[in-house]
Fold this protein.
Amino acid sequence: MTNELHELFAVIRDEEQAATTAHVKHRIDAMVNQDDGPIRSRIFAGCIVIAGAELVSELYNPDEAAKQLRRLADRIEAGQAVKH
């Protein structure tokens, strides 16, 4: 694969991550001020994690999805911010 193609894929990946982050933040911000906002935002965040794991499993394999979830759990337990 050429360098230009790698750069294109990197740009697409960055744009997808930014769009997803903005969408998720917007959805949670909209939920937070509702009476049931805290539970709605937790359910929504859980759904995002599950959908992401299913996507990784489908694109790569179940072992890769499990590895990504373990890394996320390790970072959460260590009190580190999740990097996008």
